[in-house]
Amino acid sequence: MLELDQLVKQFGGFRAVDKCSFSVQQGTITGLIGPNGAGKTTLFNLIAGAFPPTAGRIRFLGEDVTDLPSNQLFHKGLVRTFQIPHEFHRLTVLENLMLVPPAQPGESLLSNWLSWGKVRAAEQAVEARAWETLKFLELTHVANVRAGNLSGGQKKLLELGRTMMTDAKLVLLDEPAAGVNRTLLRKLEEKILILNRERGYTFILIEHDMEMIEKLCDPVVCMAEGKVLISGDFQTVRSDPRVLEAYLGESQGDAA
Ligand SMILES: Nc1ncnc2c1ncn2[C@@H]1O[C@H](COP(=O)(O)OP(=O)(O)OP(=O)(O)O)[C@@H](O)[C@H]1O
């Protein structure tokens, strides 16, 4: 589904991503791990089209998308979310969901403006989908609460809900567990699994919470210093001496 070929991102003289190659199979949940500063977020930015790579190619669903901006990737079903939830805090939870544009280029606003009946039908369909999403995420009780008043974990669920309002194929989750309490974390994990197994979403997730990685991800890709160190199943990656060394280096750095 996604192929990264020798991706490089250089900031001045510093290589944040250094010849990264791996591919993501449709239907999987790929975990992207690595110590702080390994280049994970920069790699996400490249995949999501936030900025172009210095070198290397990206293919998504068989098409070269290396230089496409994020809005075009979004319309192709590649959606990025999370590290900082991007809800509109003054709008209600329901309104936040209804504002997400559908990833369907045919449904342009202009074509809808041509017919009032079509607008109403479209709005009703969006509202129905928003309620369905709230039910799935068990958030109906906060539908009319301002999003800014949600807990951290509820905001993460809402962010996941916003991806469900699109016809996402590949979702990039940036540290979904960060700041989420244990109870909501279990719920978040359960919802991600259902979206993957039953609704066919493919995920890549950056995460420092190894319990979540172990539960959800196969394969796991470990990065360090901009490079892919190893990829494989969780146990293989976790017990690889290079991975242990990379994390040990980080904790020694922290201690210094
Ligand atoms: N815009 C930028 N300009 C210069 N350096 C940058 C820029 N963005 C990231 N970097 C550097 O690139 C390296 C990789 O950063 P990145 O945020 O991708 O790491 P990460 O693996 O996501 O780390 P963390 O787990 O702490 O979020 C870091 O050394 C960072 O300081």
TrEMBL record:
The keyword Secreted is assigned to this record: no
InterPro entries (UniProt xref): AAA+_ATPase, ABC_AA/LPS_Transport, ABC_transporter-like_ATP-bd, ABC_transporter-like_CS, BCA_ABC_TP_C, P-loop_NTPase
Region forming the signal peptide: none
Pfam assignment, any one: ABC_tran
One Gene Ontology molecular-function label: ATP hydrolysis activity
Gene Ontology, cellular component aspect: plasma membrane
Highest taxon in the source lineage: Bacteria
Keywords: ATP-binding, Nucleotide-binding, Transport
The family this protein is said to belong to: Belongs to the ABC transporter superfamily.
Protein name according to UniProt: ATP-binding cassette domain-containing protein
Species assigned in the record: Pannonibacter tanglangensis
